[in-house]
């Protein structure tokens, strides 16, 4: 059943319109972050009447991505006469869902605390997810390769398996470095618990340290880099001619690179330039 006739799921002409908008709009939006230091979530979140509770906002802006992809995978094959999707399509859809089960659902649950998220950031992220889920879901369900013969020219088995391996390497690194950030909060939470047991009050909502484990020894945002590695592997597995996968990776870089560079400035202001002088922001040897 179509949610929006001709658009959800999209006809082929509308798919190309959405994909074109997706490729152009978010790199422009992301580049605007180079001009401003404000970003209304995480450590740069500030009090505002337009803030949403961190966990609720995160869940509701991230979940629509994989739900949109699954919706297209469920509805589009029958509309386009595809009786049985190749295993490659299902594996790629599964990788996307695996990532977002962690990122959208487990991540906010595992966080000891989450700062409020501004409604503008929430709306931008929600649109990002819906556009991405629509483009990737449409490609996987009908508008990309839907036979083994088409996959033979799209991505060889060796390339596909290599891409999956890179994806899982990035996913494992992402979780490891996310957990190092959580460990900082957990240690502070334990300290605050001890203070409360002594009759003193405290909060871990805005507690920060410079993490040191893993790739944090060399850079401040290895969890961002790890996510790029994930989607590079996904793009490789899908075939380098897969425009939605390429657009997803480039849009992530456009959104997260200025955030990491501005974040390094925040660390310098918070802890002093000498404490981070030997660390890159996100790409060792480059930035």
TrEMBL record:
Topology versus the membrane: Multi-pass membrane protein
Stored Pfam families: Steroid_dh
Domain annotation 3-oxo-5-alpha-steroid 4-dehydrogenase C-terminal: ranges: 117-287
Record carries keyword Transmembrane helix: yes
Annotated GO CC locations: membrane
GO MF: 3-oxo-5-alpha-steroid 4-dehydrogenase activity
GO biological-process terms attached to the record: steroid metabolic process
Transmembrane stretches, start-end: 20-40, 52-71, 91-110, 117-140, 160-177
Entry superkingdom: Eukaryota
Subcellular localization(s) per the UniProt record: Membrane
PANTHER family for the chain: 3-OXO-5-ALPHA-STEROID 4-DEHYDROGENASE, STEROID 5-ALPHA-REDUCTASE DET2
Similarity remark: Belongs to the steroid 5-alpha reductase family.
Protein name, entry field: 3-oxo-5-alpha-steroid 4-dehydrogenase C-terminal domain-containing protein
């Amino acid at each position: 059943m179509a949610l929006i006739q001709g658009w959800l799921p999209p006809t082929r002409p509308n798919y190309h319109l959405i994909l074109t908008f997706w490729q152009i709009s978010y790199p422009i939006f992301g580049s605007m972050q180079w001009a401003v230091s404000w970003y209304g979530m995480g450590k740069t979140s500030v009090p505002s009447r337009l803030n949403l509770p961190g966990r609720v906002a995160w869940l509701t802006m991230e979940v629509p991505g994989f739900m949109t992809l699954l919706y297209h995978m469920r509805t589009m094959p029958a509309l386009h006469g595809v009786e049985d999707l190749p295993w490659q399509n299902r594996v790629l859809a599964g990788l996307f869902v695996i990532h977002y089960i962690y990122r959208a659902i487990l991540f906010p649950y595992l966080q000891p605390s989450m700062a409020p998220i501004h409604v503008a950031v929430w709306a931008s992220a929600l649109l990002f997810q819906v556009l991405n889920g629509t483009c990737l879901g449409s490609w996987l369900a009908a508008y990309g390769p839907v036979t083994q013969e088409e996959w033979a020219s799209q991505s060889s088995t060796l390339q596909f398996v290599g891409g999956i391996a890179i994806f899982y390497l990035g996913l494992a690194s992402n979780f490891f470095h996310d957990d190092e950030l959580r460990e900082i909060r957990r240690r502070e939470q334990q300290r605050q618990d001890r203070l409360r047991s002594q009759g003193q009050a405290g909060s871990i909502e805005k507690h920060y340290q410079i993490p040191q484990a893993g790739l944090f020894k060399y850079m401040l945002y290895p969890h961002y880099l790890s996510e790029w590695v994930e989607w590079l592997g996904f793009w490789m597995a899908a075939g380098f001619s897969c425009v939605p996968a390429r657009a997803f990776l480039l849009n992530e870089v456009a959104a997260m690179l200025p955030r990491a560079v501005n974040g390094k400035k925040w660390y310098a202001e918070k802890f002093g330039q000498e404490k981070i002088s030997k660390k890159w922001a996100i790409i060792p040897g480059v930035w």
